[in-house]
Structures are given as C-alpha cells and as structure tokens.
Design brief:
alpha/beta, DNAb Helicase, Chain A, Rossmann fold, 9-stranded mixed sheet, two-stranded antiparallel sheet, 15 helices, 11 strands, about 45% helix
C-alpha cells in the first residue's frame, strides 16, 4: 500500500521533485516501478504529472488512493525501508549461496559487506542525488509561484525591532550566563505561536516542565513568576480564569509542545529533534535553549559541536522550520566586553560582538541571523550581529521585567 500512497500523492500534488531528491528509483518499488517511471518521464516531457485517468488507462491494475496526508519524507522512508528488507532477503536467498561456494572465507566476508553497504546507501533517505539545474525549470517556477502566494507564511516576525526570520533558517541568540537569553527565547516562541498561528516545539533541557510552563504563563498572562512557582499568587482567581482558555480542545489551534529535562532522559540530540518533527509535520518553529546542553557525541568537543551545528542547519532546511537556538558567550569575551559607568559605577549594558562565540566558530558561520543580548537591572540591548539584510550592527533597546513577563521596546512616555 505504501507504493500506491506515494504515487497517488505525486499525482495529486503534481510533485516528483520531493521524491526524486531522495534518489527514489523504480527498483525501490516491488510492484509499481513501471508506474513510477511513467509518471517521472511524463513530467519531464510535458511539464506536469499525468492525470489519474491517463495513468489508469496505461496501468489498469494501479490502485489510486486519494487524499494522502503523510508527508513525502515519511512515505519515502517507509518505501526505502521496505526495499532494504526485500533486497537483503534476495541477497541472502540467491546471490550469497553461489558466492559462498565460489569465494574464500575472507573474500566472501568482504563481498557480502560491500553488498550490504551498497543496499544501505541506496535505500537511505539521508542520501540525496541533488538537483539538476539544467532540467528543473518547472520545479523552480512552481517554487516561485508558491513564494508569491505564501510570502507572509514564509517569514516569522520577531517581537523586537521589526526583525523577521525566514522559515527554513537558523537564528542564534548569544548572551553571557544569567542575562536572560532563556527568557528571550521563551518570549519569541510564545509570541510566534500566539500571534502568527505557527506551531512550535520548545526544548529546555535544563528546566523542569513546571519551570518552563511557569515562564510561558508569566510572559503570556504577566503573573508574578516567583509567586506562581511557589503557589502564592495574590490574584489566583484571575490565574484560574486565565487557564480556562487552555482547557478547550481546538483542532485548529497551533501546537506549543514543550520538552524539558524529564521528557529527555537521554538528553537532547539531533535524532530526538528529527523524530519529533517527523511526528509533528505541522511544526514550523523549533526552539533549542541552549546549544551547549545538547548531546554532541561521545567526545563533546569542538569538532563534535561543529558537526551538530552543521547538521542542525541541514535539519532546519530539510524540514522547512525556523530553528531558534540559544548559546552562551564565553567568560573571556564577557570580561573584554565589560564596561563600567565612571559616575555611577554601574555596568554599562552592551550586547557582545559576534566574535564572542565559544567552542566552535561554526556557531556563527551556520546561522542566517545572529542576535547577541545583554541585560542588567531591567535594561536590555539586542545587537543584530549577522543577517542577510543590510541591518548588521542595528541595536534594539529593551525594557526587561522577567519576573512579571515584560520584554518590550521602550516608548517615549517611559522617559517622562
């Protein structure tokens, strides 16, 4: 049935590119390889997939299935898994018997290892054959037309300074420890979910569910965070009334999924994030607070962190989500950036420069946008340290009262 589902979705959505990019071939199909080749060839010749009547006339036994909702990645993965199992069985049941008789022991081991490696490579969805620019003009036109129709959907407004990020990109927020970058990322996740109708997964590996949900409630309803966590709210009836809006079941309401330390017994890894995105294809925003708390492999060194950063960038693009990642500026950079007011002796709030990365230079190379942040005594500053648009160097002043859930740009009346 997986074959019919995939082919039917290709026909319904007039889309072969989303399948060919995973190097799907006729050999991956047990029964319908000829149907697959027919659809692909027809698309190349005429610029669009055939209608179902044309396919039915050519292949009377093909069982069309309308309205397949599973994403192409999931369908292709299941097709490849089935093909891997089938090819492995065929290898063991036929070729291996003859080779076992004709080859020496070490030759047979080497041969069967190479055969299984080939099957693994050809049936993996991690392998992509790329895109042939010489022949994909129709696909590029379709992408452009979709961009015209969905321009507003492809961008995410941030709650500060009119900044925007594109879906499929990687946003990094850097600040020194205890400056409030987790409050900032929580605010962004909540703001996008509530005002732009986009589903969000929020990962907070070092907080509990109670702590993270209390932060969202404080940012959303401006309930005193310290009193909320202790169960000592003076306005608890107002809090109970506020909670009623979240007791309603609404299938149209976007998701705000929260995963904290108790949901991540083995830590936060790329595999966990990818699995969550596979299970929640409607998610458009992934927030990771913070990068240094992820599992980066056994060594957990600069090289493994570089690998994680690069794979995160690929993962965000592959699943067409905006990734918002926080990371910590190192102590040496904090010392170099520290300035004191000569008259008051107070520390001057100054967002750190982009060079204040730690562990791996990939952390500033991979993101499309880098924001650095500083905050002291309720005064905050964001610096656009990297961006595609000509706004690099732009600073945004913020008034921050984390305990009451306010992070906002000052108004003129704030100074009078």
């Amino acid at each position: 049935m997986i074959e019919e589902q995939l082919l039917s979705k290709m026909l319904d959505e007039n889309n072969v590119h989303s399948v060919l990019k995973y190097s799907v071939k006729a050999e991956d199909f047990e029964r319908n390889g000829d149907v697959f080749d027919f659809i692909v060839d027809y698309r190349k010749k005429f610029g669009s997939c055939p209608d179902i009547e044309t396919v039915a006339a050519e292949f009377p036994d093909f069982d069309y299935m309308a309205g397949v909702q599973e994403p192409f990645k999931g369908l292709v993965t299941r097709l490849k898994q089935s093909a891997a199992k089938r090819r492995s069985f065929e290898l063991i049941a036929t070729k291996a018997k003859d080779k076992f008789k004709s080859l020496s022991g070490d030759e047979f081991v080497s041969w069967i290892k190479n055969e299984f490696t080939r099957i693994e490579r050809e049936t993996s969805t991690d392998f992509s054959q790329g895109v042939d620019f010489a022949t994909n003009g129709q696909e590029r036109r379709k992408r452009y037309e979709e961009s015209k129709e969905k321009h507003s959907e492809q961008y995410v407004d941030l709650p500060y300074g009119g900044l925007q990020c594109e879906i499929g990109d990687y946003l990094l927020i850097m600040a020194y420890t205890n400056r409030g970058k987790s409050w900032l990322s929580s605010h962004i996740g909540l703001y996008v979910w509530k005002t732009q109708n986009k589903s969000v997964i929020y990962y907070s590996p070092e907080l509990s569910q109670k702590q993270q949900q209390s932060r969202f409630e404080t940012l959303d309803g401006h309930f005193n965070n310290a009193l909320l966590r202790r169960g000592e709210l003076e306005n608890e009836e107002e809090y109970y009334e506020y909670l009623k809006q979240y007791d309603l079941t609404d299938e149209e309401r976007p998701k705000l999924l929260i995963k904290t330390m108790e949901d991540l017994p083995n830590g936060l890894s790329l595999d966990v994030i990818e699995a969550d995105l596979e299970q929640n294809p409607d998610v458009q925003i992934v927030v990771i607070d913070g990068f240094n708390l992820m599992n980066h492999g056994k060594m957990n060194d600069r090289n493994s962190m570089t690998t994680t950063s690069r794979r995160l960038r690929q993962l965000f693009a592959r699943h067409n989500v905006l990734g918002v990642v926080t990371h910590q500026v190192n102590t040496q950079a904090e010392k170099e950036n520290k300035e004191m007011d000569e008259e008051t002796g107070a520390r001057i709030v100054k967002a750190p420069p982009i060079e204040s990365y730690s562990e791996s230079v990939a952390l500033i190379q991979d993101p499309a946008m880098v924001l650095t942040f500083d905050q002291n005594d309720g005064i905050g500053q964001l610096l656009v340290a990297k961006a595609r648009e000509p706004i690099v160097g732009k600073t945004i002043d913020l008034l921050c009262n984390f305990n009451l859930g306010y992070i906002e740009e000052p108004q003129l009346t704030d100074f009078f």
